[in-house]
């Protein structure tokens, strides 16, 4: 898939665990894990907004397009 999810990279840069991010964005661990591993088929803008707010980053820091 040409869309790469760099959520784990941003979490590492912010020294935030999956559990901590899950609590901050009010998502289950399993849903966040699916997103983090790149297995998600879609992501809601509200979810992306919450993640960006919690990690103090931009959507482009999390999602990347590669041919």
Automatic annotation (TrEMBL):
Entry GO MF terms: DNA binding
Pfam families, alphabetized: HTH_26
Gene3D superfamilies reported for this sequence: lambda repressor-like DNA-binding domains
InterPro entries assigned: Cro/C1-type_HTH, Lambda_DNA-bd_dom_sf
SUPFAM superfamilies: lambda repressor-like DNA-binding domains
Ranges of residues in domain HTH cro/C1-type: 7-62
PANTHER family noted in UniProt: DNA-BINDING PROTEIN, DNA-BINDING PROTEIN-RELATED
Official protein name in the record: XRE family transcriptional regulator
Species lineage: Bacteria, Pseudomonadati, Bacteroidota, Flavobacteriia, Flavobacteriales
């Amino acid at each position: 898939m040409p869309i790469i999810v760099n959520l784990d990279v941003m979490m590492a840069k912010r020294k935030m665990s999956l559990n901590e991010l899950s609590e901050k964005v009010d998502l289950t661990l399993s849903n966040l894990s699916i997103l983090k591993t790149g297995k998600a088929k879609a992501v809601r803008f509200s979810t992306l907004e919450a993640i960006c707010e919690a990690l103090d980053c931009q959507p482009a820091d999390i999602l990347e397009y590669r041919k």
